Amino acid sequence: MESHFGIANVWIQGDFVTRAVAVLLLGMSLASWIVILIKAMDIFRFKKHARGARDFWHSEDFAAGLSKLGDDPANPFRHLALEGREATAHHRNTKAHLHDSLDVSDWVTRSLRNCIDEFTARVQSRLAVLASVGSTAPFIGLFGTVWGIYHALVAIGTSGQSTIDKVAGPIGEALIMTALGLAVAIPAVLGYNALVRGNKSILNNLNSFAHDLHAYFVTGARVSAPGEQAKVLPIKKG
Fold first, then answer.
1. SS3 helix, strand, coil % of the chain, rounded to 5?
2. Residue-wise DSSP of 62-84
3. Using CA atoms, how far apart are residues 213 and 85, in angstroms rounded to an integer?
């Protein structure tokens, strides 16, 4: 109750600058939580796709593997498999292009890498919002504190009363701005670190899947662990 009462006093007694700082911190907090929630749901969905990608290699042929990846157009593993198949077919069926100087391995590698780079840019988008909020919110709150203390001291000097009961209220309300800045920054920093770890896990799975796809499209079989046999049949020549 005391914190709510203090924040209410900051808003009621503060001037335009104090209120602008409070509104700015509120907007930064809302932006941070929106990004955190949206990105967290994306990571949850991509991890589900990653589990489905493990079943891809237990299919009898490529078409059956694609069906196990589902039909979600946002599935990066499905998009990667389709991109690799398209690159292989394009390299085999077209002539008199610049990429003809590249062998199929280099061409498939380039296509898969471009696909992964596009996905990386997509999952890392808007993370800069969290980084910016985490690095600037404490200083914005500190600015509100300094501004509030300055005006509190001016008011005290004008009234000529400097007793502790006259100083504690205005100074305490000004310090609330620092607490607000930290309350905005800490979730943003923690959310940023958690999302970066989640994205790194997804990208590791995607790179591993791309490595197996490259071996499959170039040699006709997945690079298997010792004692494991490839489960996917070679691509039929068309």
1. 80, 0, 20
2. HHHHHHHT-S-TT-HHHHHHHHH
3. 9
What digits encode the pLDDT tens for the residues 100-113? 556 778 888 888 99
Q: For residue range 22-64, what is the model confidence (pLDDT) as tens digits?
A: 889 999 999 999 999 999 999 999 988 888 888 888 877 788 8
Considering the entire predicted model, what is its pTM? 0.77
Gyration radius of the chain over CA positions: 28
What is the distance between the terminal CA atoms of the chain, rounded to a whole angstrom? 73
Please classify residue 72 by burial: count the beta carbons closer than 10 Å to its beta carbon, then call 0-12 exposed, 13-18 middle and 19+ buried.
middle
Q: How far apart are CA 195 and CA 131, in angstroms?
A: 11
Percent of the chain with pLDDT over 90: 33
Cα dihedral 47, 51, 57, 62 sign? negative
Query: Between vectors from CA 183 to CA 169 and to CA 136, what angle results, nearest 5°?
Result: 105
What are the pLDDT digits (tens) for 138-150? 999 999 888 878 8
Buried b (16+ CB within 10 A) or exposed e, 187-225: bbbebbeebbebbeebbebbeebbebbbbbbbeeebeee
Residue 232 has pLDDT above 60, yes or no: no
* Integer Cα distance of 76 and 85 in angstroms: 14
Q: Is 224 left (phi over 0), alpha (psi -120 to 50) or beta?
A: beta
Residue showing tokens 């995607």: 206
d(CA 219, CA 77): 20
